[in-house]
Amino acid sequence: AAGSCRRRRLAPLNEDNGRFLLLAALIAAYLSAGATVFSALESPSEAAAQLRWNRTLHNFSRIFNISLPELRAFLRSYEAAMAAGIRVDALRPRWDFPGAFYFVGTVVSTIGFGMTTPATVAGKVFLIIYGLFGCAGTILFFNLFLERIISLLAFIMKACHERQLRRSGLLPPNFRRGPAMSGVGSLVGWKPSVYHVMLILGIFAITLSCCASAMYTAVEGWNYVDSLYYCFVTFSTIGFGDLVSSQNAAYQNQGLYRFGNFIFILMGVCCIYSLFNVISIVIKQVLNWVLKKFECRCCPKCHKSSARLGRRNAITPGARLRRHNISMDADGQYDSDTEGRRLSGEMISMRELTASNKVSLAILQKQLSETANGYPRNVCTNTRQNGFSAGVGALAIMNNRLAETSDSR
């Protein structure tokens, strides 16, 4: 009964496909809800603005004795000038070196304000080639930043954890980081929590946004809410372009302001990118919990075996552990990535890793601990045979460095 139950659960829809479809459905519902809210909030204002504009247009045409077709033709020319970057008030040159540097920065970071666009055919063709490599390199930079910020947070949180253990008397006062750590039971298998990392990154992102908003309010003359709105739109690379910093012809302490603007945008994008990836793991944990609720309930044996599991992995919901003891060097292949990850005690994707290379689980369990203690992470020779064995992208980086989040933590 248990075997048939498991086959029904995995075929034709396995856990990965089920999670993907569930996330797609939730995103569709989220988009629909957002569209409903924004339509209710903004549609009346848009209709009122359109009504005021039509009234103004007709009054101008009547007072100055200008026909509506001629007036509309003039306004179309004005809109074309606006699109080309021409304004009534003097603005900074769009295509001098600082302006072009600002433009390419918004291109490779995928912010794309849209206030400056190439007008020549050669410029548009060059942008396609330039953006292809520039965006790829910038995404790699964001991933490397994420890897290092997570390693730094792991090191700091490890030090705080050791200090707490010393105060509670669970750690000897003369304890030093090193090989002796393996003999201390309180530190064996310790990993930083996803939720703690998310909290730290969230606090840092809020602090950075508040400081940047104060600068934009003072220099650009925006109100503080508009400055916060600009910071989120820019740091998250949404880049609507309705508010764009550093566009006036001159500023007081202009060089210092441009440098500060560049640093805030760079740090803000890196920080929000890292925060988004941590939040994505938490969202995936919620999906795992939902899928767990939808698991097959017809087989009592499934529930009994699931009840024995003391920890829950943050990436994949419950798969039954084998009842017999498993050696540290696992020779068998797992039918899902959950079993390997639970045995190793960390959120590392094991599907490719263990199925093809038979990697030692003991070595994998040390990886984040070594990162937290400043050790070089030794990669098993077999893992180098498969370039995708540890996963791809920012989510794999998070899996390699954070602990599993569980109900028992």
From TrEMBL:
Per the record, the major location class is membrane
Q: Which terms does the record give in the GO molecular function aspect?
A: metal ion binding; outward rectifier potassium channel activity; potassium ion leak channel activity
UniProt xrefs under PANTHER family: POTASSIUM CHANNEL SUBFAMILY K MEMBER 12, POTASSIUM CHANNEL, SUBFAMILY K
Swiss-Prot/TrEMBL catalytic activity: K(+)(in) = K(+)(out)
Q: Record's family? A: Belongs to the two pore domain potassium channel (TC 1.A.1.8) family.
Potassium channel domain: which residues? Answer: 92-149, 205-284
Membrane-crossing residue ranges in chain numbering: 20-41, 100-118, 125-146, 194-216, 228-250, 262-283
Which segments does the entry list as coiled coil?
Answer: none
Q: What's the protein called, per UniProt? A: KCNKC protein
Task: Name one process (GO BP) from the record.
Answer: stabilization of membrane potential
Per the record, membrane topology reads: Multi-pass membrane protein
